[in-house]
């Protein structure tokens, strides 16, 4: 049987911009499938904007058939108003994956950084550098939110491999 | 043409319990179509729970074909952690409606109370009483979250009628 690899969808939710990164692991090597951002129309009401995120995720899932997904754990120091907004976009991402039977892993932001760079407090630029390096891309041309989503997808693949090796 | 009435879906989102209330307005009179709660499995991860809410809403929408929806505006005094959770359930409700092209009205909690009872600070029991009264139900047997969702649906119908009358 041909090894089509394991396809993982990483998500960096936001009501304005949601980053996505789809990565395939084939023979232990991560490769880029697709990445980008979902931008919601700022002048529309929140429900319409959440619908835009959902519909685009449905399209991406149909197109690329990821079998697992990953997202960052909640960052709790935000103020309640922005926390609700962030929560809304997170809920949409979760529902889009769950309704397509795609299990979702959650990783703390420091865990993602530590996984990719080795240091939980690594700056964003270093994480972005490692994302491109892991995927073998010399001149990445994706926006920051897309890079963050790719980082989560790669972290999930690494953690998954580790769990398999250690039998956890 | 027969008047099948306007069917509205009211939602009271929560990660643990989401209340729904489906009301039909026919010849200026609100009548109950369906109401209840969506309970999510507490032991499952958040994404799975959000999927349960989404799938159940999809089912309700398919079954009852609401043409408009309504939800309470964000309540901002919660702490960031519960605000994120509330936001997640809200996002799922919004996406479920938007992906089915159901426009959603948002009303502040005090607006809903004022609309039904006449006083923005009315106690929950009084709102529940008016919900049952508006729907012509003598002995309501639904839980509080369902009643809250029905209140939002009825508020939406009333506000809608008012807007139509005043041409706003």
Architecture overview:
The structure is a homodimer of 168-residue chains. By secondary structure, chain A is α/β, with parallel strands linked by helices. Chain A has a single domain, classed as 2-Layer Sandwich (Nucleotidyltransferase, domain 5), CATH 3.30.420.10. In chain A, 49% of the residues lie in helices and 22% in strands. In chain A, helix 3 (109-117) packs across helix 5 and helix 4 (124-135) crosses helix 5 (144-166). Chain A is globular and about 45 Å long. The A-B interface holds A 45-48, 50-55, 58, 69, 71, 74, 76-81, 83-92, 94-99, 103-104, 106 and B 45-48, 50-55, 58, 69, 71, 74, 76-81, 83-92, 94-99, 103-104, 106.
Secondary structure layout:
The structure is a homodimer of 168-residue chains.
Chain A: E1 6-12, E2 17-26, E3 29-39, H1 46-64, E4 68-72, H2 80-98, E5 104-107, H3 109-117, H4 124-135, H5 144-166
Helix pairs in contact in A: 1-2, 3-5, 4-5
Protein name (chains A, B): Crossover junction endodeoxyribonuclease RuvC
Active site (chains A, B): 12, 72, 145
Binding site for Mg(2+) 2 (chains A, B): 72
Separate helix tally of chain A: 5
**How would you sum up the major sheet of chain A?**
5 strands, mixed
> What is the correct CATH architecture of chain A?
2-Layer Sandwich
Structural class of chain A: alpha/beta
Order of helices and strands of chain A: EEEHEHEHHH
CATH superfamily of chain A: Ribonuclease H-like superfamily/Ribonuclease H
Q: What is the total tally of β strands of chain A?
A: 5
Q: What separation lies between the terminal Cα atoms of chain A?
A: 27 Å
Strands side by side in the biggest sheet of chain A: 3-2-1-4-5
Let me know the average pLDDT of chain A.
93
CATH topology call of chain A: Nucleotidyltransferase, domain 5
- Domain module tally of chain A: 1
Q: What assembly state would you assign to the polypeptide chains in this entry?
A: homodimer
Indicate the CATH class of chain A: Alpha Beta
Strand content of chain A: 15-25%
Radius of gyration of chain A: 15 Å
Low-confidence stretches of chain A: none
